Amino acid sequence: MEKIEREYLLGRCKCCLDDTDLQSMWEEHFINGEPEVYGELAIQCFGLNWHLANDEDVICNACIGRLRDAVNFKNEIIASEQLLLEGLSDNIVNNDIEVKVECIDDSETEYLEINTNENKASYKQYTRLQLRDALKAISDKKMSRSEAAKAYNIPLRTLCTKINTNAIIGRYYCVYCSTDGRVFHKGSHLRSHTATKHYRERITQVEHFMKPYWFNEVLKLDIHDLTCKICKTKLPEWNDMFQHFADMHNIGYDEAYTRVIPYRITKKLECALCRSEFSAYHVLDSHMNAHYNNYICHQCGETFLAGSRLDKHVQVHSRGQFPCEVCGKVFTVEKYRMKHYNYTHKKKKVFKCLYCVEEFELVNQRQEHIIEKHKDVANLYTCQHCDLAQECEEWIDPFDESEESDPTPDRPKKLYRKDGTAMYKQYTRLELKKALQAVADKLDEEDNKSKTIKFIKEIRKILKNTNATPFKHKAGKYYCAYCSTQGPAFHTGDHLRTHTLTKHSNERIRQVEIFMRPYYYNEILKMDIFDLTCTKCYTKLPEWNDMFQHFADAHDIGFDDAYTKIIPYRITNKLECALCRGEFSAYHVLDSHMNAHYSNYICHQCGETFLTASRLDKHIQSHSRGKFPCEVCGKIFALENYRSKHYYYTHNKRLVYKCLYCTEVFQLATQRQDHMIEKHKEFIKKYVCEFCDKLYYNRQNFRRHMKRKHIRDKKYKCTECNKGFILKYELNSHMIKHNQVKKFFCNMCNEGFTRKVTLRTHLEKVHKMDVKNNETATT
């Protein structure tokens, strides 16, 4: 077994065990005229014990790029350390103080020894391992700061300083106020400020804060608790927003996909796209380059958000000799020389006080100035363990996890100010109830999301192992599931299947999650299973349920949600149910029939079953019968949706039927159909009768013509004259001739008629009345 594993690992990258794009680790490679040996770079950077060079050692191109970045990062740390030491030596040149840092044995014990002419001070000794364990114990809430200081022999102030240094996440500024305005340390404070102070200029000032355009190439957006303002829908993911606006509100985007960068400003710094966690904001900000390929470095292949980031990165590849103009010190990168000059010789003051006009070279100098000069104005927080004053609350207690949530009643959160007084958050029972409900909703949302992920995996199984075609249907036309209803419409299943096979073969599996969004709206998926075949063994599957049995027996593949959430159809010229083979005249009749095969939702009043919750909600309206009068004319209806239809079609005259080929909108579906026949005749499918060559643009009218004129199956017979009819209502209309019952009377001359249409003709011709504007005349 060991021999097999050893042979399997031979010829793979020594760093990541990949087997693609490999190069030798110990041969010389020339990059920009300079030789590189990748094995020596790894030993130099990480101190690895690779003393025996093996000619068979290889490394992949991806690891080469990461290795170069690590070496450059190490060189940058060394250069920065040199600059700091130079600045330190300038500050203490006039003092008789010797600072000595030593490392003893293998335990890496660090201690600070200060010798002066007058006295000697000794400090506690501790190892790096002890410091790491102490910080971990505090972060895990196992020890308090004072307990950790005593247990690990570390000074309390040193421990607090280390915690405060690790706690600094970053400072955020309002985009409307820019960096000259107020600084925020929490996302909740930033969001509250923007919502209250800039709600009026939220839209109108966009052009202003994006100036200059060459500098503001991208825009950063905080998407914490992202919600659609149109329909109040929660959008848990950034890409959900684009899909939601396209599907629900017909709003499209172009530049926003690559130039608006999403962030979630919370206590836990994580990427808004891949959910990876980071220790500091600048690390997260650099990570976002990996998700966007707006700019690409042609030397190493790295991607970047903005041109300025690429320009800064290119300097890493342009190594040379850059001497300082003042002291002559030589640097390998130009930016290192600039940093040395600014911090050593120029002494430029770049950190401005937030409360006065003073400027400082270092941020800690500004912090000391604020604590000393502006303690009455600044919102300072005092550590309850060591009386350390800080401007930001997170620097006092960085391990407090309750960043956004309200405290529980028995343990309210304390805020300590300079004078030592404690403040408690105030909240009402209603606020507590809302918070608990929000937590419950979030748990439900996570549960629904896990179920959706499981359903998507099963869809991928079916699409991977069969030739089934997912589709959508709207207004009597079929649409590709990948293009959605914004794409081309198809009238036949052959055209739909050909389009899906040729245009979306690459994204057939990986785009499932996209066309299933939003999840609450796409509760089921419709699939065309015409000529269904298993692509693993090329077995024909004549029935839908045969597929599940075949995969279980032959390939050991199981399903769960697919039984009830994937609905099979056969899109052919003959509309029939894929489960019971029943035939139907129109697609919407077949679609309604599919409810009978699935019991996902059940009406408790009549026992009918339905595919989705939306269909059940629509059905329940039929049970809520009553008296619903029209607000305008007073006409009474038994159902609320009938009253609404009457109002919109009679009084409101709302244009709800949009042309499928242009921007025209109509009040009635028949008006839209007439318009399309007149203006877009070349796009509409034509139905020609093979017996009499009569032309139809509507399939229903064509089928009616075929039944009436060319199909002799007239099963409804008149008992009086033995005349046959195709439809029952035609027989009922004919029987009026034999019965001669006059139900309709003229209000002017009291003459009776057997049909209402005859009464209307009488009123128009004899009494010259406008029947359309005088409905009471025919009642």
Automatic annotation (TrEMBL):
It is found in: Nucleus. Residues 295-322, 322-350, 601-628, 628-651, 687-715, 716-743, 744-772 form the C2H2-type domain. Keywords: Metal-binding, Repeat, Zinc, Zinc-finger. GO terms for molecular function: DNA binding; zinc ion binding. InterPro entries: Homeodomain-like_sf, HTH_Psq, Znf_AD, Znf_C2H2_sf, Znf_C2H2_type. One of its GO terms (cellular component) is nucleus. It comes from the Eukaryota. This is C2H2-type domain-containing protein.
